[in-house]
Amino acid sequence: MRPDGPQDLKSSAGSTVTLPRDVCDLLDIAYPTPVGRIGNTRIDTPDGAVWVKTVEPPRRSLNTLILPTISFLAPAPILRRSKAGKGGDTLLRQAQRIRALHTMGLSVPTIRYADRDLLITADCGQTMERFVRYADARNEHGLDETGVRDIIMEITRTLADMHRHGTAHGRPKVRDFAWRNGKVTILDLEEQPEEVMPIADAQARDIFLWVHDLCSAELSRKIAPDSVALLCATMTDATRGSMRRFLRLLRIAALPARLMLRVLPKNRELTSGIAAHDILRDTFST
Questions:
Q1: Tens digit of pLDDT at every position of the chain (286 positions)
Q2: pTM for the full model?
Q3: Rg of the Cα trace of the chain?
């Protein structure tokens, strides 16, 4: 592994780049091997499949301004934007975080290679997003709703375990966890919210984002209340207090969101946000 050495990623035709020769030698794969210029590419190697993640350039769009604007208008720590993002040393930072979580005993991918341009990790199984969203995918793989529910609850336990270890995921969604042979592996550790907010706020935000994602699909929306109950049973008093404060902020946005949903009844973000708010409100009102 050469964590900060020079790279010679070569542009290929279209939307791909070629892995450096020394990386191909390390993985024992043929040179040249192309991978996606942006995002993740799966490659089979003699030692098992790996995922190659390439550094993404910083994005500037209207959506990237929304959270900073809200944070400025309502200066609550939980709304602060994480410093980690795209470009720069983000892949090195992710590798560092993976190693730190491994030291804690948490289940993370094995790093095969890392530098400023590439993060290569061992394949840890499949994510469950397709199975949550599509009955055809469940039927194709012999999964029923009970099986999916059990896996979602196991992922929830993994998130709770991260919180017990005094850390947070930063952006937990169903697609950010892999599943294989009864084991959950934590993926996509791009965000590092502890750098900009207290850990209690980072964990409370984790819970909201996780429930928000569960509420984006009909099947997982039914699982969300049990998932919240599990997280509540293990959270600290500080995290509970942060969640109550966050819900007071959400209450301000709830009415406008419900009015907007009447105009945009099929908007998934509005539907998910309102459902997540209602589940959390009912949970924390008791």
A1: 444 444 456 655 568 899 999 999 999 999 999 999 888 999 999 999 999 999 876 555 444 444 444 444 445 677 777 765 555 688 999 999 999 999 999 999 999 999 999 999 999 999 999 999 999 999 999 999 999 999 999 999 999 999 999 999 999 999 999 999 999 999 999 888 888 899 999 999 999 999 999 999 999 999 999 999 999 999 999 999 999 999 988 888 777 777 877 877 777 788 888 899 999 999 987 6
A2: 0.86
A3: 20
